[in-house]
Design a protein that fits this description.
This protein is 6% helix and 16% strand. The chain is mainly beta and 96 residues long. Strands 1-2-3 form a three-stranded antiparallel β-sheet, with no helix packed on it. Strand 1 and strand 2 form a beta hairpin. It is elongated and about 60 Å long.
C-alpha cells in the first residue's frame, strides 16, 4: 500500500468537515484507493456575542436544522437554517 497522504486543516472556516470529494484519475487505466481514517479535532471555536447568521451557528457546532434567533442589523431576527447545506451553498438561510 502506498504511503499515507496526511493533511492538517488550519482554516476554521472550513470546519466542521461534512464531506470529502475525490477527483478523477488522469488515466483510464489508473486505480485509486481511498482510506479515510479517524479524524482528530482539537481546539475550540471562540464565540463572542450572539451569532448573526446560519454560518455562525454552523461554525459553533449546530447541526440540527430549524428556527434560530440571530442578531440582525437593528434587532434580533428569526431565521430558518438548513444544516444539510454548507455555508457556501445557497438556501442554507431562509429569512422568517
Amino acid at each position: 500500500m502506498p504511503a499515507a497522504d496526511k493533511r492538517t486543516i488550519m482554516d476554521k472556516n472550513v470546519l466542521p468537515i461534512t464531506r470529502l470529494n475525490f477527483d478523477r484519475m488522469q488515466l483510464e487505466t489508473s486505480v485509486g484507493v481511498h482510506l479515510l481514517s479517524r479524524f482528530e479535532c482539537t481546539g475550540q471555536v471562540a464565540v463572542s456575542g450572539m451569532p448573526s447568521s446560519c454560518a455562525d451557528l454552523w461554525r459553533t457546532g449546530h447541526s440540527l436544522s430549524g428556527l434560530y434567533s440571530v442578531l440582525g442589523t437593528a434587532m434580533v431576527e428569526s431565521i430558518y437554517c438548513d444544516f444539510s447545506k454548507l455555508p457556501s451553498d445557497s438556501g442554507m438561510k431562509t429569512q422568517i
